[in-house]
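job 3f2a | input accepted
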Amino acid sequence: MSVRIQLDRPHAHFRNLDLITGKVILTILNNETISAVTVKLEGESKTCLAVSQLLPEEHFVQAQGPRGRHHAELEVHKLLYKVSTVFPAEHLQRIAPENSSYTLPAGQYEYPFRIKIPFNNDCHNNSLFANSNNVAGLLGEIAKATSRHVKTTLPPSLSGLPGQAEIRYFVKVTVQRPAFYKENFRATVTFNFLPIEPPRGPENGRESYARRQHQFAPKIDVPYKQRLFRKPTVPSSSIVVIPPNVSIDSRLPDPAIVTCNEPLPLRVLITKLNGSLATIYLQILTIELIGHTNIRAHQLQRTDSVSWVIMSASNLRMPLGSRDNLGPGKDMEIDANMWNQIPIPSTVAPSFETCNVTRNYSLDIKVGLSYGSSNNVNSELTIQTLRMPVIIYSGVAPPPELLARMSDHWPAQAVTQPQPQLQTQTHIPTSEPSQAFYPPQPQSGQYTISPQTLPEDSPPSYDDVVGNNHGSVYGARRGYHQQP
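job 3f2a | predicted structure (484 res):
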């Protein structure tokens, strides 16, 4: 006997409210007695940490217990667990006695199925399945019960952290055989999942930013030595050039939201703070997206970082500004065409928080500047790094029906999506010109409705909000691939 799953539309990834349809193909060579054929839609978040992985000590948060520094902890959350019985048929299930079995003759059988992906996770109700069915074979650890659960939108599929953290979704079929000495037959199909993004607020015209200042040093001329048969020359510094004092800003719309598979809505500004007439030259520009993954396995915790280089250019020798904006206080904007045609890589997952894994992002912009004239560029090169916390959205907008019914169920102020406030300040530090200004960073990767704004009644299920007959999310499917 063999069993396999065939999906009708095997997309590159699925989304919330998508209807997964397909059929179970069961091939029997001889007469077989079975009790049921069930299809399960599952999603799980699994983390496994050993104390030895937390060294050096800056990655070590807490490790309690008598087993010492070499023990490991396994934490598993069953984010999604939906079961559909495709055999026997529904009318047989109602009239047949409990624990009935059926003998099927040799042949090939097909059982269609359809399961809709919900909106929120439900690991609190499914914790029993997670704790009883997961064992870390390599480390010999059994997943222990956990009391910490986060009720939020289903997180995206996540890989790239082998042996430490994984979030995966799959469809599994089980052919149950009543004889205790015969094992059940199973088949699994794994798929990528990309969640719907939270509702976006209207544009407010504000910008969040990071800022650094730098004071260039004056040029030091080395006097020429008088040589035989050669007249001494006049040092080039006879014309005094005031070294510029500059401010470097990186700006994003507030709140700082970046969308998967879209270019960065970034602006980089250079501003002179003194009356220097020297020309500022852009020599180096690097933009890098850094993902910070916080992994927790019971009392063990660590943070792992991964980066994506959006663009990198050097030896640019690009003059900034024009004669009209060379004065102090005038902004010189770097040409955004250097990065606004480059989309975010398809391996970047949206920001999320689930029970044992959190993913946050920051944007690093490195700007290399020098100054001088068209004939003589000063050799001094300063490289300033600006870091901004950003939120990554999936780009999958919620359907209008969902927003409308949420508005009907909750007050308007409860449905509005709160965002971490990247506050704007006008104070510029002067005692330390090289000190960067960073807007306050969010303390959590969960950008969902805060408990303070929730009404007393529980949030509606996806069936309550959109109905069983509501179709899938509209719009093209964006590319989303797992990291190797």
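job 3f2a | The CA atoms of residues 283 and 317 lie 5 Å apart.
job 3f2a | closed
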